[in-house]
Amino acid sequence: MLTAVPDEAPVHDVWALVRARTRPRRAWSIAWLRTISPRAVRRAAAFAAVIAVGTGVFYGIRPSAPEIEKPEPTASVATVTVKWSDDPLGQHTDAVIAAIDGM
Amino acid sequence: MHIGAFRRPAVSRITVVLVAAVAVCALLASRAAAEVSDRQREQLKSLAADTRQKTERARAELRNARAELYSAYQVYELDERRAKAAIERINSAQLQLLKIHLENQLEIRQVLDSSQFREMMSRAHNPRGMAWPSIDDSIADRIPDRQMIEDLGLGTEQKRRALALIGPSSERTRLLEKLRRDTRQMMEIYSRYDLDSTAADRIIESIHSSQIELTEQNHKRQQQLREVLTQRQFERLQKAIAERLQSMKKPRPRR
Prior knowledge:
The structure holds 2 protein chains of 2 kinds.
Chain A: H1 14-22, H2 28-35, H3 38-61, H4 77-80, H5 90-101
Chain B: H1 3-34, H2 38-74, H3 80-111, H4 114-125, H5 138-142, H6 146-150, H7 156-163, H8 170-191, H9 197-228, H10 231-249
Helix pairs in contact in B: 2-3, 3-9, 8-9
């Protein structure tokens, strides 16, 4: 009787469909996080805390570097301004420009 | 009574009125001629803006180069290459300014006629316009002074040599006098409508050669100062100079 049943394969690969439906949809990293044991998390947290405390202590206790004595400012605006001898005709041009501005 | 006795005053009155009318007409005509049109005013304003921009740029370059040279002179071990580069920049900016002024003068004459030019120049001269230049270069001649050298506690020979380096040298005085003379001459050329370009070029050359010599003299003096003073003495002198300049900058208390 069974020989009468037609030898038909299912149209779809059922297992492929099952795998597609049951594949974890979250990002692999999140999935990976789920695999981390609580013990490892505790260890990492403790390690980070130790590093943080160590850094704080190091920078807090370490004596500040001696301030380098800055030389007194010797440059003065008075010495750096344009002298008359640098631009002896400057006043003339400035006066002419002022006269044009006043027109 | 003679008829002429009545006529003469009438004739002279008519003459006076006519002369006055002619004078008024001439004055009005000259005013009208000197009046600058809107187009000319626009051209002049544009020229003034352009000249102002160019002079400001050249002056800024000059200030920066002077500051650079000043910094180079602060160090005992004089960096000749650095100082020379700054001097080159100063020389170039000085010449550029002289050319900008001449160019501006030539351009003004392209826009205005002679009567308009005279009118504008009279406005530029009065009341607070162009004045004879004030010499502020004297600051370099007053610092360092004798007291500063005395305070260094130098030996007799060293002090004699150091004192010889302060104050205006005869060469510097001569150069400044020449510069003043050339400047006056240039202003006279600029005051005339018929600008003599050849004469102007010659004076620009003379002014610039004085400027170059002044800067070179200053550099030579810096070299000589280092030959006379030790590094420690030099640094003490620099500090004294800086303090003096600072005190000069402080505003005077009001009474």
